[in-house]
Write a structure and sequence with these properties.
With 233 residues, the chain is of the alpha+beta class. It has two domains: 2-30 and 164-230; 37-158. 39% of the residues lie in helices and 27% in strands. The protein is built from six helices and eleven strands. The strands form two sheets. It has a nine-stranded antiparallel sheet with strand order 1-2-3-4-5-6-7-8-9, covered by helices on one side. The longest helix is centred in the first third of the chain and has 27 residues, at 2-28. The radius of gyration is 27 Å and the shape is elongated.
């Protein structure tokens, strides 16, 4: 029993720590992966609360946004400005009219999963603005809040859940693989036979150099797993 624990003890400790860490990360990041968000001027917004037909969205570093829902009509309030969005068609292409407080009107269409906006003359606005040092550069004649931004804020179907939680499960698998490659000689030997390296040598046995490279590869795999886990966010 002691010899068995001595052999597998580090692995059991590693798995226990990995399980505890996974539970902590899962609980603490649940809201991050499950709450849909959208972006206005590089600021991330998430739903804060609902009061009847009014939904309030908040950002950590920008003014709150309120959306009043009236069937096919939405009134988006940012600061002291009210923007009205009406949905004029849902099929075959979702189409919206966006009205600005100063009287400007735009049409927004969803084409192949992308929202595109057109002014009253039918000229298409650039789908993306230039960004410098994390700040959006507003071109001459461009609205501070573009029609695409306003439609995205007004309709929850254009909000997206951030991150890729599948990367966390991939990271766990890669880490365990890296640990086995680093720690278990029997696993290293199994990889040797599975790789068919023994076909090309006279003495079909792993060399000392092979075992050393397995350990190095195992460490690199565990580092790769840590990097993969951070890519989930």
């Amino acid at each position: 029993m002691n010899s068995l624990f001595k052999k597998h003890g580090p692995t059991l400790i590693m798995l226990a720590c990995l399980a505890v860490l996974s539970i902590i990360v899962g609980i603490s990041s649940k809201s991050y992966f499950t709450q849909p968000v959208f972006y206005i001027d590089q600021h991330k917004y998430g739903s804060d609360y609902e009061d009847g037909t009014t939904i309030t969205y908040r950002s950590q570093d920008a003014v709150p946004i309120q959306v009043q829902v009236e069937q096919h009509k939405r009134i988006v309030t940012i600061g002291e400005q009210n923007f009205t969005i009406t949905q004029t068609a849902s099929k075959p292409i979702a189409t919206y009219n966006v009205f600005y407080p100063q009287g400007n009107k735009y049409e927004v269409e969803q084409q192949h999963g992308t929202l595109l906006s057109y002014d009253e003359k039918g000229h298409m606005a650039p789908p993306q603005s230039d960004v410098l040092n994390g700040e959006r550069i507003i071109a001459e004649g461009e609205e501070q809040y573009t029609p695409v931004m306003l439609v995205t804020a007004a309709f929850p179907e254009y909000h997206e859940k951030p991150g890729m939680p599948a990367f966390l499960f991939l990271a766990i698998a890669v880490f365990i693989y890296g640990w086995c490659t680093f720690y278990y000689e029997s696993f290293q030997r199994a990889l040797f036979w599975i790789s068919f390296q023994w076909v090309w040598v006279n003495n079909p046995e792993p060399s000392d150099f092979y075992y050393v490279m397995c350990k190095i590869g195992g460490v690199l795999c565990m580092l790769l797993a840590i990097w993969t886990a951070f890519q989930a966010f």
